[in-house]
Design a protein that fits this description.
The protein has 389 residues and is of the alpha/beta class. The protein folds into 2 domains: 254 residues, Type I PLP-dependent aspartate aminotransferase-like (Major domain) (Aspartate Aminotransferase, domain 2, 3-Layer(aba) Sandwich); 130 residues, Aspartate Aminotransferase, domain 1 (Alpha-Beta Complex), CATH 3.90.1150.10. Helices cover 38% and strands 16% of the residues. The chain has 13 helices and 12 strands. A 7-stranded mixed β-sheet has the order 1-7-6-5-4-2-3, with helices on both faces. A 5-stranded mixed β-sheet has the order 8-9-12-11-10, covered by helices on one side. β4, α6 and β5 form a beta-alpha-beta unit. α10 runs parallel beside α13. The longest helix has 20 residues. The N and C termini lie far apart (49 Å). The relative contact order is 0.12.
Length: 389
């Protein structure tokens, strides 16, 4: 999709129907019961309740929900979209739809922590066998497939450690074996990567991050095509998960400025990452746009930009020193999540069960927001001595 088209989609899709004197934005819609004039109309809506755009009952969506779904389909190049109450709900509902008792699921070893927890506890407890694999295995994942392997879940880039997998190779291996591929593409957003065009079956994302963009909404998104997406949609509706009306409107608002915000954090994130990379205490910068990051070549091939989230490995320091360093920062708030206007910092301890993580350094994750870059650099420079063990 040419860059100019993205802007058109962000501005034009998901708007109210064209009528005289219409609102620029979708109005807030609340409600549970939708009423019909005839039984024929009611039964038609009931029979089509799993189809996007159907007005049947509040849990299945309303006009604002369908407007956001329409826009996200256009951005991702998808046939269908389902919204959930959070990114975690998007992930868990998708995996529940694709893997049942007796099935086998493959999950990248650098997956988001809550995804790992869900797989190791609730999903495994329901009789699904979960195998974690090296996130850089690429086409070699084919050697891990079993007759009962139903799906593969991975992330681009990896959570916390930012490895970039060979997305087309993984997707092709899955397709050849009849295994559904699911990717968490929260980090790049559709502005910088469109995994469906690379062969992936389902894309999940936390819209709480860059989509809504202001750290004031919780929402998840699922996009995909055909029967796989329809199975996911039915699961979401069956478990009764849905976003609130206010969250949908905040996400529609965030959608309008998504491209310009992503372009800003791309530039700002690289600037701060370069500055940190030049510091004596830095062992390595884990930023997909940097050659020091595993999978950089795949990022350069498959992505058109980078978000403002990255990691830095600090050498010859200690946990206590990292705590002092983080506490010494003011414009970088300490908090989970990311993707809002604020800059954030958080120490990270990677969890690995299928691949090695034996780097002798402390990992700190940075999210660069809209703060003045010189202010951030001055603050980081003042805090650097605190990393002395």
């Amino acid at each position: 999709m040419p860059g100019s088209r993205i802007s058109d989609i962000l501005v034009q899709k998901g708007r109210p129907a064209k009528t005289e004197g219409r609102n620029v934005n979708m109005p807030l819609e609340t409600g549970s019961t939708m009423v019909f004039d005839t039984m024929a109309e009611f039964e038609a809506a009931r029979d089509a309740r799993y189809q996007s755009g159907t007005i049947y009952y509040g849990r299945y969506g309303n006009r604002a929900v369908h407007a956001l779904e329409e826009a996200l389909c256009a951005l991702d190049g998808a046939e269908g979209c389902v919204l959930t109450s959070s990114g975690v709900a998007a992930i868990t509902c998708t995996l529940m739809a694709l893997a049942r008792s007796g099935d086998h699921l493959l999950v990248a070893d650098n997956i988001y922590g809550n995804t790992r927890t869900f797989c190791e506890t609730l999903l495994s407890g329901q009789g699904v066998e979960v195998t974690f694999f090296d996130p850089m295995a690429s086409a070699d994942v084919a050697g891990l497939f079993r007759p009962n392997t139903r799906a593969l879940m991975f992330e681009a880039p990896g959570s916390g450690t930012f490895e970039v997998p060979d997305i087309p190779a993984v997707a092709a291996a899955c397709k050849a074996a009849g295994v559904a591929s699911v990717i968490d593409a929260t980090w790049p957003t559709p502005i910088f990567c469109r995994p469906l065009a690379l062969g992936v079956d389902v894309v999940v994302a936390s819209g709480s991050k860059y989509l809504s963009g202001h750290s004031d909404a919780m929402i998840g998104t699922i996009t995909g095509n055909g029967d796989i997406l329809q199975a996911v949609r039915k699961t979401v509706m069956t478990v009764g998960d849905k976003p609130g009306g206010q969250e949908v409107l905040l996400s529609l608002r965030g959608l309008r400025t998504l491209k310009m915000r992503m372009e800003h954090v791309d530039r700002a994130g690289r600037d701060i990452a370069r500055w940190l990379g030049a510091q004596d205490r830095t062992l390595r910068v884990l930023h997909p746009a940097f050659e020091s990051c595993p999978g950089h070549a795949f990022w350069r091939r498959d992505f058109t930009g980078a978000s403002g989230l990255f990691g830095v490995l600090f050498r010859e320091t200690s946990d206590a020193a990292v705590t002092r360093f983080v506490d010494g920062l003011d414009h970088f708030g300490i908090g989970v999540s990311w993707g809002g206007y604020e800059s954030l910092v958080l120490p990270v301890t990677p969890t690995r069960t299928a691949s090695r993580w034996d780097v002798d350094a402390r990992l700190v994750r940075f999210n660069v927001g809209f703060d003045d870059l010189d202010t951030l650099k001055d603050e980081l420079a003042a805090a650097m001595p605190l990393l002395e063990p």
